[in-house]
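Form 7-S
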Amino acid sequence: MAEIWPAAADLRGWLGLLAERGELRRLGSEIDPEYDVAAVLEHADGQYAVAFDDVRGAAFPLAGNTMTSRSHFAVAMGCADIEVVGRIQQALREPRPCAFVEPGDAPVLANHDAGGDLLGDLPLPVQHELDAGRYFTSALVVARDTRTGRTNLSINRLQVTGPREVRALLLPGRLRSILAEHEASGSDLQVALCVGVDPLLASQSPARPDLDDLEVVSALHPGALPVVRIGALPVPAGAEMVLVGSFQAGRREEEGPFGEYPLTYGPAGPAPVLQLTDRYYRDDARLQTVLSGGREHFWLGGLPREARLLEALRGNGVDVAGVRLTEGSSCRMHAVISLPTRREGTPRHAIMTACTAIPTVKLVTVVDDDVDVFDDEQVEWAVATRMQADRDLLVIPHTIGSSLDPSADGSTSAKLGIDATKPLTDNERFAKMRTLSAKLDSYVAELED
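Output:
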């Protein structure tokens, strides 16, 4: 097996790498999954990963905060920080077939439970004060799109409501469309929940319906992604656990509320019901949770969306130097775009493209390429010195937004664009002042060595 398993090709490999880097801390004391796990993860958010070795009432240990920075994605992909979004974009353009392995060579199939209580002994936290109960927050939902034969991956909020029952929030997207097609014919939809996967698997957001999401992930790995079939569903062979079941056609039950990425609660409502039948898991399996509203939640959804934004901009003829979805907006609602070259109207064209490509985006700031999109102070400086409100603002009312945005009217939102670029003429008036020294490096070395 060693020849097809890169060092960080699964969750345990990634945790081992974090431990080597001094970025994983272990909690050996017993911890209550109701509130206490989330409180510890919130304390460590953006600083280090946590391995919980003794979760009260659980038969499996737990890990969280496994991706705490943009640079972690670069480490996982083996590239520089600045290349991460481009690598994801390339994987979307050039997916790679997976490597199917025999069941005997798939670690996730080492153990199998059928029927009975499949969820009661799992370390599933209650995260926030008003959450409706225990939730899967990191599980990959694997479904087959019968229209295309492609595999769809999504991360949905999944409330545990019984020993084998889960209720799922399905926002508009590919999975909801697949389920609707099955329900129209009166048939259940079989899915798999993969819990405890490597960070590149977890980082995928919905892509084009003609893509196989597992093949997109495969293109991000050094070699083809090992997968194994459970029934008709291909699943990552190195997942820690896979639970198999079916969404029951036409059945809806109350789900929520639950704390979401805007750091407010997503409301309760009727949700599809998933009935589980089997679980498979590795020897010494360790499960995974993602702190909703934490840095890991932001990055896992934000970076793939940045790649989609970059692809949309370039596909619409916009020359782009950099894009960023800001942490202050949970890497979902505010975008910054820098332009190296442009003509009249390009900033507004970029704004409208961004609002369409990523429906959750409600504020787009466009800057010149002498402004670092990853530096909030520089972006604010550009707005302060290159924008006038009576000429450089674009308001788009009553368009599609995020239903999880508490300020939105349902899923309808107004959007704002800020053109913080220099005018095409009179550039000298807007030039950034700078100092010049041919010997700066030597002076700094003397001062700081």
